[in-house]
């Protein structure tokens, strides 16, 4: 048994830190895109839009029913063989695309549940004062659903940050990829992967504090 | 005087069950009509159809110059009808994400396009009228049942509707809150607001209504001034119902 090379780990910190922005960039862009897509998917399901409803059901089923890694490989290595315009897609874009699709499927189900959790009578009350479907969703239903879904959505965001590490398998040098490269040169795999693990952990911990604050704030918005 | 509200041949079916079986009803301007009758006879469905919360299968609803024909009612007509009919729900149905004031303002800003300032002034007037001048910033969860229902009424008042519809407005309330809600409805009735009220409060119906309509089996069985319906009903079904509730 050998001891940890702490000095080496310390040297790695600024190296890995340099890739934190890319990881956060992929996660934030994917999260925003996934939120928008998930809200649309959820609304299609709640309103039972003819035909689209079935398409969305299959979409959600597929992206929840297959591993994220498989989906990323499909987008990046598989699809370009058929759709030639995709050959120029880079790893970061493919990762963002894959993360968006994958997580939007999960998030759509959370948002749908939260929408259905808003008392039906509020839909009717909004209709009764003459609101259109769009107005009542935007003004009454979605704000309340967002409050209910927020903690779950935050958990998905945390999962997403960790999921960006799979971009490494698409040839992207992000935090995980950088750690892998460093380790390949030094052979100090334990140190390198430990540092990158601690980085993910720290990011997630910071977010968890934010999550708790957000929940406290949301709880206050509707005073009991 | 001609009808301000003219309902003709209204039919509503739920599957094989005909809940409204050809309702004709005419309300003159300022007329206050109470609908009574056993549960499950279509009283609430009638009100809900007048607001298109339930879509009637046949019949016409005319309010002033607006006529909505169930056979060909489009989105625009339905929205126009709703803007002319204020609906008060049994279970309040307040917007939980909004304060009392915002609940009242919502129809003015989002639906009628008023400026925020103008809507706020109007909402504050209404809050005073409903006796909640100091509770405008409270969320529904912080109000008593009676206060919530008064906000629900205030929200409908804000529409300045041609017709106010009250669907058993006190049935979900604890007995201690019934009085204040009835007082408010009485006040609105005194202002000669055209209204239709479905209620189990017979004494109240007798007191505020110009006309009482007795419904059973999806039809209007009998109607007339309260004195006649409560004192000298002609139809056996009306008398039998009144004996049971009286």
Automatic annotation (TrEMBL), chain A:
Compartment annotation: Cell inner membrane; Cell membrane
Domain ABC transmembrane type-1: from-to ranges: 20-208
Q: What is the lineage of its organism?
A: Bacteria, Pseudomonadati, Pseudomonadota, Alphaproteobacteria, Rhodobacterales
**What is the protein's major site of localization?**
membrane
Matching entries from PROSITE patterns are given as:
ABC_TM1
Does the keyword Membrane feature in the UniProt annotation? yes
Q: Which UniProt keywords apply?
A: Amino-acid transport, Cell membrane, Membrane, Transmembrane, Transmembrane helix, Transport
Query: Hey, which family's this protein in?
Result: Belongs to the binding-protein-dependent transport system permease family. HisMQ subfamily.
Positions of transmembrane segments: 20-44, 56-77, 83-103, 183-203
Membrane topology per the entry is:
Multi-pass membrane protein
- Name of the molecule in the record: Amino acid ABC transporter permease
One short Pfam family name for this protein? BPD_transp_1
TrEMBL record, chain B:
Domain (ABC transporter): residue spans on this chain: 5-242
Residues spanning the signal sequence = none
Name of the featured protein: Amino acid ABC transporter ATP-binding protein
The family assignment reads: Belongs to the ABC transporter superfamily.
Recorded GO molecular functions are: ATP binding
Keyword list (alphabetical) reads: ATP-binding, Nucleotide-binding, Transport
- InterPro entries the record matches: AAA+_ATPase, ABC_ATPase_HisP-typ, ABC_transporter-like_ATP-bd, ABC_transporter-like_CS, MetN_ABC_transporter-like, P-loop_NTPase
Coiled-coil boundaries? none
Report the superkingdom from the record. Answer: Bacteria
